[in-house]
Amino acid sequence: MSFEFAVPLTRKDLLKRTTDTQYVVEEVLTIRQINTQIHGLKAAFRSGPAAILENFDLIYSVLSQLNEVESDVKEEVWNLLVKAVSQHAAQLPALLDTADFDCSTRLQHLNTLKMSAYLLTQFMEAFEAEDTKPTTVTVTKGRKSKKKTSKGDWDWEGERLRVVQSLSQVVQLEIGRLWEPPVVEEEFVNMVANCCYKLLENPSTCKEKGSKEAVFHLLGTLVRRYNHGLGASLKIIQLLQHFEHLASPMAQMVQLFAQQFGAKSVISDIMREIGRMDPSKLVRDNSGTRSYAGFMVELAERVPALMLPNISVILCHLDGESYTMRNGVLGVMSEIVIRELSKGDLDAKGKNARDQFLDCLEEHIHDVNAFVRSKVLTLWLHICNEKAIPLGRWHQLLCLVVGRLQDKSSLVRKVAIQLLTTFLTSNPFGAKLPLDVLKAELEKESARLQEIMPEQPQEQPQDGRPVEEEWSVIQPEVMTALQDLQEEEEEQELIGEEDGLESVVLKVKTLLQQSQHKSAARLVMAAREAWPDEHVFANTGSGEGEEEKEEDDSGLQPDQRNLLEILEAIFVGTTVGIPNPEEVLPASIQEGGTEEGVPEGTVTETEGGEEGGVVNEVSKQQVIVQYLKDSVNFATQMQRAIPILCQLLGSKATSDILETIEFFVSAFEFGLAGAMEGVRRMLVLIWSGEKSVKEAVVEAYKRLYLSPTGGNARARNLAIVKNLTALTVGATVGELTSLEELICELVRTSLLTSGVVTLLWERFALKIQGTTAEDSRGALLLLGMAAGAEPDMVRSNVDVLVQEGLGQRGQDDMQLAKDTCTALLKLAGSQKRKAGCHEEPLRFPADHDMFTGLAGILVNGVENLANPYWIPLMEQGLNVVYRLSENPDVVIGNVIKGVAAVVLRAREAESGQEQAQEPESAETQEEPPTSPTKIIRCSSGVLSRLMALAGHCALRQLVHLDVALTGELKRRRMLQEERNSKAGRKGNTSANNTPSSTPAGKGKDDKELSIEDEMGLAGASADDAEAEYIRKICEKEVVTGSSLLALLAPVIVAVCSNSTMFPHPQLRATASLALAKYMLVSSEFCEAHLQLLFTILERAPQPIIRANTIIALGDLSFRFPNLIEPWTPNLYARLRDDSSHVRKNTLMVLTHLILNDMLKVKGYISDMAACMVDDVSGIADLAKLFFLELSKKGNSIYNIMPDMVSRLSDPDCGVTEEHFRTIMKYLFSFIQKDKQSESLVEKLCHRFRATRTERQARDLAFCQKC
After folding, report:
1. Region 96-121: what's the mean pLDDT?
2. Count of H helices and E strands in the chain?
């Protein structure tokens, strides 16, 4: 054979001859010629694979025109090639086993191998390219249909696997003998390898496990047998850059190279190439960088031991600009720590590497990029889950994570909270972490340690000098010994296998006392190598001040200075030893980490056999103390995070809220102190508009309170009842309101079962043994809350409620009676009725046990002044009467008469309890119908309760008339109209069937009425008439005239008018509130007593009276705005009140009035602006919030600015220059329009001429700059 086939770089190279012996394709056949010669090709290949030598041009022609030839031809040629390669692979072993074969045979087989392999790889690449082309193949549900290269049943995925296996069979032979010299040429290896890489570019190849593994093994054979390692490394880098889906397959392939084919150098080559990459290019090519990072992390996960020696070459990227690459390098570190450096038998080098990696991970918790910070925290989360964090790092790491809770990035905060939760659930200290219990246990064990700690006479030298002074004497000698110490002397084996840490420390100190300084230094150096992580041999950094200066001047090397510090610490006794932790540590510590910090006060004296047991006992106690110290530190750090996490419950980011909820649930389960605060704060989130947050809150409380374990169904239900009752103890009004919504949600979702409700009723009725009065009240509260979602729960048990809550128990426990009234109110439902609802409201007769029992409690308990729940019960009881009674005026009238009778029966003799509380009695003038001038002396407390009853009754009567009565009249009228319309339709039907006998005038009236009905005027006129009737009753018959409430009005006015005769603070506060409630009912009564109310507002000495009065005046402003409008300056004046409570209430009232357009924005608003610099931060924040909302109402801020500048800059206003600037900066920030700014500047410039002081001019100039 006279030619040799050379593998071409491109397909066209086979058409050009460069050497005499090179094979060249003579002619590329046409499609017609191919079709005529294809049958001859089949016949030729029957003789064997050598037929390719004579028919190469024909197959080449098919390859060149692959897109034009028929599918049958392509299939036929493909099958012939595959068969030829397989046959040749079967023939070669016999040939290669021959000791010697002639040159022509070698060349023939070599050309056959090259030609068949070349054509086969070319066809594979062509078919693969066709397979990866975008197609319009219909996608079936769930997965794509397989692509075919022909119309037949030929599956390319199966063919691909078959060919790769054939090529693997070839390259596994000793084919190098076919070359001369016997080395496979690089072009042939690259040809096969490039075909494999081309296959991997197709994502479908990587998804098919068989094809993928076959390609990997083929490439692995090339790497091991044909020196393709470097080429594979470079090609892997290129593939990762352009194909992001190859990150995981490439890591799997490199693992295969290293473990099965022994090509570990591939990892080094790849890491070296990645380390050499330009950081600026990595920033621009984010997709490629992401692939590199993912590849490195997965490779470290698969072969951490091989990645560890190569990590140094990629550390440079930690300082690069690409945050993705930083994440990749840090991910490699974490995987190495978890899978390689977390073993218990690490040597000193491994521990040092682990510490360096963990230090690096800690540093990047504060990375400049938020994505890196979140990624590092995620890595720490992974490390924590794998229990690979050394115990000594927990405290420092926890501090860093707590700091990230206030990160500006929500992504970082989310992972930080997750990490804290994982720290809590994976902590090595215990399943319960109550801080107070741990501290008490620590004190107890520390005291026991002090008791068993033996004397340490070596602390004081024999000559009586202090140890520090003794050290200062021998320090120069020690320094000289360290300088003379030779390196080779360190190699002597100074520590035996039986020597422990305590014995070595004691021996060092003994050598120093015996002036054998070199021996002591050598022993320390040997011990440092034996126990590199022990605190005893760490750099203590004790050299300070003059001593450090002396050490620096001595010329010691850093290591020698470190030795000197260790020797000093051992001699002086400031360092300690530690026994083997595994002997005495609890199991939780042994599982959670590796090394532990060194406890203080370890005994170093072990002289004599009798003291050995003592020392062992002391060592165990020291470990227990250290364990408790670590537990206390951990719990303290967790406790420090709770206030920050409570704030995050109000975050705008939903992720913060969800993760914080999960943390508090775990913290509560672990008994962490302060966790209950977070659990209670979670309650308010039940009102969240975010569905996920609301569901998380419900799920959290279900997990904490509704999921008890153990016992039968009744025992579990009883546990649920106790858990929910505990939530009501000590809860604020806001928390109870949120808890009610939570309970309603639990009822709606059937999480609160009927069994739990039954037990609540039993607990309320004291049917369960051991139930206290507080437990009963809690059960009643929960029943009332649940009734908000299901009122039938109360409706079916009204008799039980009345009998228990308003019976004898209610007489003795007014708080229980008040809660009973709250539950009964659920029967009334919403006060506002739905439009078109004709359902008759639920009402009970006036003589029902509910009302008689309530009246009896109020009348009989009015003189019990020691009980503070009478007024809350009275208010809630009146609400029940007006919502549920058919004749509320009758019931309330009897109550008022009964309480008034108690007042009239009172005489000068006061009860002992009343005398203790009120040493003075109040005089008042009652005006009963029989004796209008009789003077009655009675208790101020009882009289104040009568006034509170009258005031609240007047208010509830107004609401009853204005809402309930009006609604009932409207409901009845609508029912009547429906009856009339039905009757009218029947009448019209009969009228159509009979002759009309209606007079003409009546027909005209009916026509007018029907027109009014169609226009809705009839109903509107009726509404107006009813409203006018109700208004007239309120004006003339409720608090004025001869009604029962009107008879009490002079008493209320007298108490409010005469502070000398009625000085009792509670009486005056109640009277002022009752007066304000009376004024809300009637404009006539309001106008008559308005001046008195403002006098109380300005002159009342008690801040609580002024604070209540300003709120009442806000309500009056809504009710009678025209009456209050002339008194507006008096309202603003309370912004300068001495009491912060009064100022705050005034600011809130004025805010509501102005923002609801009930009060005009006038010049007095400058007083509200002055509140922005109030000493109380809450008031300042409310003022800023007011102006923020006001700025949303058109040009309101712009319109008031000129007058506000003038008033606040007035020296008589009392606003300092600094405060003036603070206010103006904030207000001018709302002036956004250029036109408004220019107009303000012009107006302010005109005011310079009117300034009277330099301060005013400076203020105007400052406003110009704003």
Report:
1. 85
2. 60, 2
